[in-house]
Amino acid sequence: MKRILACILTLGMVSQVSAQAQQGWKGKFEQLGEMLPTPNSYRTASGAPGQNYWQQRADYTIQVELDDRTQKLTGSETITYYNNSPDALNFLWLQLDQNIFAPKNMTSETHTGVVKDSIPASFFTKASGVVVSDYVGGYTIQYVKDASGKELPHTINNTMMRVDLPSPLKTGEKFTFAVAWTYNEYNHQVFDGRGGYEYFPDDDNYVYTCAQWFPRMCVYDDYQGWQNKQFLGQGEFALVFGNYKVKITVPSDHIVGATGVLQNPKDVLTKEQVERFDRAKKTFDKPVFIVTQEEATQKEKTKSTKKSTWEFHAENVRDFAFASSRKFIWDAQAVKVGNNTPLAQSLYPKEGNPLWEKESTQAIRNALELYSSRTFDYPYPVAYSVHTAQQGMEYPMICFNGERPNKKGEYSKQTLTDLVSVVVHEVGHNFFPMIVNSDERQWSWMDEGLNTFLEKETIRVRYPDLFATHGTPKGIVPFMRGDKSQMRPIMTTSDNIRRSEFGPNAYTKPSAALTILRETVMGPELFDKAFKEYAQRWAFKHPKPADFFRTLEDASAVDLDWFWRGWFYSTDNVDVDLAEVKWYTLNTEKADPERKEVKAKKGDLATKDGKPADFSQGPEPLTLTNTAEKLNGEFRSHPDDNAVRQKLQGKNIYQLRFKNIGGLVTPLVIEWTYKDGSKEIERIPAEIWRTNENEVTKVFIKDKEVVNIVVDPNAELADVETSNNTFPKRETASRFDRFMAK
């Protein structure tokens, strides 16, 4: 009969599950299953690269000249493309990112906006997509030729160029071809780009930060073939690793910083500068000035008409960028990470001082050391931070950063915080995505979110006086409180996220989620090991979201599907309501232990609107009856009911009911305050919700009497409404509001 009943119950459950499945129901603790790609020999179920994992490679030899009079770049490149895929390729795709500034480009054509009276004139430049300017942007492709000089058929589609091959490029083969181009560098005060130039009218000079300046190979991989989605401006780049040899011709009084190692310092620097440069490579305690402010200021007044060519080599990088100006002050110092000693270098005009000479290179050092400890030792030989106004953009070994003092050289603590944060963040991008090479066109959070998390950790550890709520659970609450109908999940393609929500969605919400994962769900030790495992597995490779999700579970033995489903695939938020509290103590009246009910001695807790409001009415008495014989089943022994009563004598028993208002399942962090003034933090795993995602009740036994209960006392869960987190209930403003007001 028991077996028949069990079968009936099982059939009923299966029927119920089937009905739910037909309705598209998915429980918050169900495995992600079909939401993730099927594991294969390229990418395993553990999240590691498979035995047949492959990726393409592209090597570049480039010559480029920067005309300081016309702001035009003229370049040519030879690309050797290696087909390591199992597929024969009939054509290749290149990215023409500068075409985002070409006439009738897709970005400006699809930009939306409205006009209202008394708006700034700049609305008709970068803000609206309706550009009123004489600037003509975009590439002029002069030729595409094979190694013998024969023209190759090519087709330009907005920001992509297809090059047709004379014959299929088979597995294991390589193809060499050449491209020549020109384009007009843009004023990044007018156009919202990632490079460009800044003009300084006081001394009639420029700072150039040259990015996306050459046609670059698209990624071809096992996940989607060619990643040739158009560049619309928000979704960044998917790029191929390779080796670079680049010659950059500029005015002879310019200083150039770039991806890679300078090959010819004696050709482009003075004898004294070479000596300083060599000394910096051996100096670990403070920066060495290779070009001082006085020397840079002097060069601003006398513009050279001669040219110099700087040559840089870089191995196993996915991109190449450079900066050039006669205004640059240059300082550098060596940094020790493991067995490596990269050279941290800063380039900045005098307008950045005194802030930059104090902080930039030190921030590079702090970023390299902290990130290396959490991932892998920084493998590249150099790391540059270059200053120009209102930028924050990353490339292998070099980044462009804003934040400067006012004209008097004064700056606030906020400006200091912003500078340190942007340098740490952009230098940190060397790890994600320059080395752990995710697809930014698809998944901004895989580099921006992970990097914001480590930026936050660097500030917390190295700059505790500057640490704020950026990228923390507390900091993300205002965003999470917002209108869910207007939100997108983190797992949304970059270009499909609203501009106003892009920062929280790609940067700070993933960072806050990882903070909760580290501090509350997994614990620092497990999380740090799993995170490092992911970084080391996928260094110099192309990971996808599933590889990250699977690796963190594989390396920790923590089932996190509920976490990814809630934080990354939904727009739910955390809002836990401590809906009810009941307090019991063991009934001490002499009574028949077999009786089923005992009338309350002091009645229920004080109530308001029919619900318990505080502890003033004392506990309810709790009578424990003897265990009925039938409950022992086949066991011949009997529980010692009196021993149980004895252990509970004098204890306080609390029954708490929690409601999940926000929809996002979460661990419970409970702070108990006792009558003697002492406190205790108790942590309950999120799995408490696994059989009821909406409401759970749990019993706690305490030696001491409780006077106050708070859920999420330290704002570590990103709970959006904390006024319902306390007992006794409070009539004042929510704890979050008071916390934020501090």
UniProtKB/TrEMBL annotation:
GO annotation, biological process: peptide catabolic process
UniProt KW Signal keyword: yes
Region (Disordered): 594-621
InterPro entries registered for this protein in UniProt: Peptidase_M1_aminopeptidases, Peptidase_M1_dom, Peptidase_M4/M1_CTD_sf
UniProt KW keywords: Signal
The Peptidase M1 membrane alanine aminopeptidase domain, residue ranges: 391-567
Lineage top rank: taxon: Bacteria
CDD domains assigned to the protein according to its UniProt record, in alphabetical order: M1_APN_like
GO molecular function: metalloaminopeptidase activity; peptide binding; zinc ion binding
Pfam family, one: Peptidase_M1
Record's compositionally biased regions (Basic and acidic residues): 594-612
Example of a GO cellular component annotation carried by this entry: extracellular space
Segment forming the signal sequence: 1-21
Protein name, UniProt field: M1 family peptidase
Organism, as annotated: Chryseolinea soli
Phylogenetic lineage: Bacteria, Pseudomonadati, Bacteroidota, Cytophagia, Cytophagales
